[in-house]
Amino acid sequence: MANNKSAKKRIQIAERNRLINKSYKSTVRTLTKKTLENCEKYKKNPNEDNKNLVKASLNKAFSLIDKAVKKNVLHKNNGANRKSKINTFVKNTLTIN
User: Which domains does the chain have, with CATH numbers?
Assistant: First the structure.
């Protein structure tokens, strides 16, 4: 347990940052899953609307990953690996059909 004022404040700041980081990571996972779901939807029914949906969700996911890296929630290599994985899946989906 913290004994002085600065240590108590650091505990509060660490908890606040933990919750912010947790929400970023959760949202990154959610957007990744949505992008992959949209790719599956495009595979089943390849039309222009589904293609635009895939591209839009890809942009959202990339944007949030970049923001998480910028705020040091994710390491830059981890962010790059996530983006690469998503992009490879999307490229394979869009080139097959």
Answer: 5-96 (1.20.58.110)
Query: What pTM does this model have?
Result: 0.86
Helix/strand/coil (H/E/C) assignment for every residue in 51-85: HHHHHHHHHHHHHHHHHHHHCCCCCHHHHHHHHHH
CA dist., res. 55 & res. 74, Å (int): 23
What tens digit of pLDDT does each residue of 76-93 get? 999 999 999 999 999 999
Mean pLDDT of the chain: 93
The amino acid that residue 37 corresponds to is: E
Place of tokens 């600065």: 6
